[in-house]
Amino acid sequence: MSATSVIEMGDVLLVTVQGELTDHDAVALQQDLAANVAERSSRGVLIDVSGMEIVDSFLARTLHDIAAATELLAAKTVIVGMRPEVAITLVELGLTLPGLATALTVADGLAEFGDGVRPL
Amino acid sequence: MTSVVTLHELRIREEIDIVHVRQTVREVAVSVGFSLVEQTKLVTAASELARNTLKHGRGGTAQVELEKHDGSTVVRLVFRDEGPGIPDTELALTDGYSSAGGLGLGLSGARRLADEFDLHTTPGEGTTVSVGFRAGRAAT
Ligand SMILES: Nc1ncnc2c1ncn2[C@@H]1O[C@H](COP(=O)(O)OP(=O)(O)O)[C@@H](O)[C@H]1O
Ligand SMILES: [Mg+2]
Q1: Interface contact flag, A53 B26, Cβ < 8 Å
Q2: CA-CA distance, B51 to A58, in Å (whole number)?
Q3: Residue A117 carries which DSSP code?
Q4: How far is CA A38 from the centre of its chain?
Q5: How do the domains of chain A map onto residue ranges?
Q6: In angstroms, what CA-CA distances link B7 with A44, B39, B67, B100, B132?
Q7: Which of chain B's residues have a Cβ under 8 Å away from the Cβ of A92?
Q8: Which among A73, B57, B118, B134 could bridge B53 via Cys, Cβ 3.0 to 4.6 Å?
Q9: What Pfam families has UniProt attached to this entry (chain B) (predicted)?
Q10: pLDDT digits (tens, 9 = 90+) for A5-30
Q11: Complex ipTM, two decimals?
């Protein structure tokens, strides 16, 4: 039902989340990513959420926790491509996700990591 | 003239049911012509309330109703459970309050997202939360 893919781009992990995620899927993603970052000594994690039609408080918290965990592992997480209607709804829900780095496109997100990231 | 139809009655017993509620509510929102922002608010509120029914209310049901008033359409979602109930509703509706280590934005956030919000709860008997969403007030 949901498809999550992780692609290595240089030392950055590009994660694409699409479709419906159960709470369990979200927690599994969090654990997989932390393990991946540690194993590959990634410098950054880019999470492309442009395929996500909603982000509720559980998922928002998971994204926040992913960022916090990767930071402890010396990698930065950037959330990319949030849909405008999702952003509007999150703010009204009361979630502003302070401290979470965001970018509008994958290219912009990659730029956050500076040089050394090879394009596909 | 007002007419009310119940379109769906869904069980909420496991996590995947939250996904089913979201999908069903999305289909209804699309079919009555909600804008993308309206759809997203409705589905997000549904997701929060369905999760509360499961996690705090030990499971229950979601009813999806369509109300037609003169020239306007309301999608109403009614979440019912026979769980522990909410001892202090004002506290439960406070942003950031959670009895379970959550973010505490589900109930208060759903109230903000909805056009109409109703909460009935009896400790030891259960909780019913009803939210109404009106389609864009532009003429139909
Ligand atoms: N259906 C319910 N039955 C019992 N308690 C509930 C129910 N819904 C909400 N609550 C109570 O209200 C609190 C706030 O709910 P919410 O804002 O969704 O936060 P969270 O789910 O993150 O704890 C919950 O922690 C719980 O104590
Ligand atoms: Mg909740």
Answers
A1: yes
A2: 9
A3: P
A4: 16
A5: 2-111
A6: 46, 17, 10, 32, 14
A7: 41, 109, 112-113
A8: B57
A9: HATPase_c (PF02518)
A10: 999 988 999 999 988 899 999 999 99
A11: 0.93
CB contact under 8 A, A20 and B51: no
- Interface probe with A: pick from B94, B103, B107, most Cβ of A within 10 Å: B103
- Which SS3 state, helix, strand or coil, does residue B137 take? coil
- The structure's pTM equals 0.95
Q: What is the pLDDT of residue A97?
A: 82
Cβ-defined contact of B40 to A94 (cutoff 8 Å): no
| Domains delineated in chain B | 2-134 (3.30.565.10)
Distance CA B109, CA B106 (A): 5
Tell me if A4 sits within 8 A of A16, measured CB to CB.
yes
Q: How far apart are CA B89 and CA B68, in angstroms?
A: 30
Q: Answer yes or no: are the C-beta atoms of A32 and B24 closer than 8 Å.
A: no
DSSP at B138: S
Q: What is the CATH number of domain A2-111?
A: 3.30.750.24
Pick from B101, B97, B88: which is nearest to B127 by CA?
B88
Residues of A with CB under 8 A from a CB of B: 1, 20, 22-24, 53-58, 60-61, 83, 85-86, 88-89, 92-95
Count how many residues are written for chain B. Answer: 140
